[in-house]
Design brief:
With 426 residues, the chain is of the alpha/beta class. The chain has two domains: 303 residues, Glycosidases (TIM Barrel), CATH 3.20.20; 77 residues. Helix content is 33%, strand content 17%. The radius of gyration is 26 Å and the shape is globular.
């Protein structure tokens, strides 16, 4: 089951009414959504009912306070808000956004020097307040590249943390990391600095080299944290599906179906593998009007209609899977007295023997389904369900029909390996 799927909710304060949640909660549940980033404000709380209904539905809100790093907002001003969010079931909070960019700072303060130390002091003053209410801080996302090169920003900050012996950056550390593609392939930069060693700030990678500015930024950040602090951080991917979020551009190659395959780690040469340290993948953006800037990066329109046709396909597949998961326990109980065997995996054999590497091939299937296994069609006919491992047409249409005629549910896995046994001299 996909437990990583999440979305960025609307950026304004106008979509926190009961009617909004009535609309969007239905869509979120239909997609088996587990996470939702909520833009928070310092002058009022997101309504309690909005938060608690999300939590009760199994969707964990991530509260994101996005105000300038050096604004006049003081930590104590958020005490009542943080206390309320914690009571309502919130577990995660983020302070600030892209602090390695000028836009995250007020006026000319960006150029005043010692920016890493100033940011860290400010950041810790808020996170330590949040921790008083057992809220887990998530380190804010950096802008890949940025006016202050993000890799340099993070590296300097981590060394400062180490130098000061800051206890807040421990093995519970969670980083929010950009998952924008910037027009590169999804495997661009995968492997991090241990693989790509010739990258320089603000320079195009040399021919044959790749840098971190792409979907796999997370692997570079994770490597830095491990190298400097000796811990493996957990990760939350932001703006997934976008080419460049500041330009409100979706990556046209990234359908919703593709993104869910990545989240579920469906192995492919064209899709990256996500580390088990990736907790959540936040797709941008849940909904917006088509004529708004964010409408270009929205998965739904404001009426909850999907902008990507693969969303409806995914919803139908989930409904089918959920239905099967409800039916399976009942079927298993019935099988105890209606059938001698619940699930039988029928394996192929030939006059010359058993196919090479057969047991290596079936191991993942056996690990998941734990069927009874054998080579006998007669024995298989006593099962409620039969999965036929039909390698190189080992079983004929008549064999399959025989099993159906005896009342078995038949699933056929067809493989064509065209293996021939090695010629042997006797």
């Amino acid at each position: 089951m996909n437990t990583r799927l999440g979305f960025h909710y609307f950026e304004d304060q106008d979509h926190y009414q009961a009617k909004d949640l009535d609309l969007w909660l239905q869509e979120l549940i239909s997609l088996n959504t587990n996470w939702l980033v909520l833009k928070a404000f310092t002058n009022q709380a997101i309504p309690e009912d909005f938060i608690t209904r999300l939590v009760d539905s199994g969707i964990q809100p991530i509260i994101h306070f996005d105000f300038p790093v050096n604004s006049e907002v003081r930590p104590e001003e958020l005490r009542i808000l943080l206390s309320a969010y914690a009571r309502w079931g919130v577990k995660y909070v983020i302070f600030f956004n892209r602090p390695n960019t000028k836009a995250a700072w007020l006026g000319e303060t960006w150029a005043q020097g010692d920016i890493i130390s100033r940011f860290l002091n400010r950041y810790l003053s808020f996170t330590r307040l949040a921790e008083q209410f057992e809220l887990t801080p998530i380190f804010p996302p950096l802008a890949p590249g940025g006016e202050y090169w993000d890799i340099s920003f993070l590296k300097s900050l981590l060394y400062l943390v180490k130098q000061r012996h800051v206890r807040d950056f421990d093995d519970k550390l969670i980083l929010a990391v950009s998952a924008q593609s910037f027009g590169h392939s999804l495997t661009y930069g995968h492997g991090g600095p241990s693989k790509w060693k010739m990258t320089l700030p603000y320079s195009k990678p040399e021919l044959g080299e790749e840098d971190h500015i792409g979907f796999n930024t997370w692997s570079w950040y994770s490597s830095l944290v491990q190298q400097i602090l000796g811990i493996r951080p957990k990760l939350v991917l932001f703006w997934m599906g976008t080419s460049n979020v500041t330009k409100e551009e979706l990556d046209p190659r990234l359908s919703f179906e593709t993104l869910t395959k990545i989240m579920e780690n469906e192995h492919s040469e064209t899709l990256p593998d996500l580390s088990e340290d990736v907790l959540a993948c936040m797709c941008a953006q849940l909904g917006a009007k088509s004529d708004e800037a964010m409408g270009k990066t929205a998965w739904f329109d404001t009426q909850g209609r999907p902008n990507d046709p693969t969303i409806a396909t995914y919803q139908k597949q989930l409904q089918k899977t959920q239905k099967q998961s409800l039916e399976t326990p009942l079927a298993a109980k019935l099988a105890d007295w209606l059938y001698a065997i619940d699930h039988y995996l029928l394996l192929p054999s030939f006059e010359w023997g058993i196919p090479e590497n057969l047991f290596d091939q079936i191991r993942p299937f056996v690990r998941i389904h734990r069927p009874t296994m054998g080579f006998s069609i007669t024995e298989a006919s006593n099962a409620r369900k039969v999965t036929i491992w039909n390698e190189d047409a080992a079983f004929s249409d008549d064999d399959i029909q025989f099993l159906r005629d005896t009342g078995c549910i038949v699933e056929e896995l067809v493989l064509s390996t065209l293996r021939m046994p090695a010629k042997q001299d006797f």
